[in-house]
Amino acid sequence: MELKVDLPALRGQDIDPNTFQRVWDRVMPNQPAPRSDAIPDSAVPAQPTEPPEETPPVEPPPVEPPVEEEPPVTPDLPPVPDCPAEPVCPDCPACPDCPQCPDCPQCPDCPACPDCPACPDVPGTPGVTPDAPTFCLGEASQGDAARLETLMTLAQSGAAAARAMTRRASGACARALSVLACDHRSAFRRLSAAYFLITGRRYALRCAAPTLPASLPLALRQQFLWEQQWEQQNKQAAQATADPCLRELYLELAQEGAYHAGTIRSLLEQMA
Q: Which domains are present in the chain?
């Protein structure tokens, strides 16, 4: 859009053309200034427009020149101290001479052992010649005949008492008492065989029926005490006899008596 200006109307005013041109360039920067010969005299002066507010140019911030940093100063290295001189080792003292070992004393002579005394002769058994051999369960054991008779009587009495209690008991108790009676009958047969070998005759047994309490527990108590007596009698017989076969038999019967006493005690514990 071209703006028309009445230059003749402006001619009467005191306006510097150069000043006008500067103002025109500032207000209308993209349009050329009007010429005086191109505008007729009858031209209507245009309404002047207020120039826009001038915006002050924004000046960029001043750029500070880069400051050159000086490189850090490296301190001088301290001087390396000199190595200390190597100490001189003192001379080792001389080792003293080892003392000489004294001569070992001579061992004294061992004293002579005295002669062993002579063993006295073994006294002979009266009634037996020294050269005669001793037989097991032979005539030399005649002194055990009375002891065997006593033990056979006890064995028969114990077997009878066990059989009588077996008839009163039942179940496991009856079976245990039956075994006990069988053991005493076996003991009687073993003692009877030894008696026959020593004496050459059979023992005529006369044994009365045992007397037992009416109550089975009391009868078992009486049999318990009897078994302890049976054990003690056989131990004493084993200590008194000189026959090795009879000693072995007596000890076996004593062991059976201790076992029977334990069995009766167990039966009483079950009845309690």
A: 1-49 (no CATH), 139-271 (1.20.1260.10)
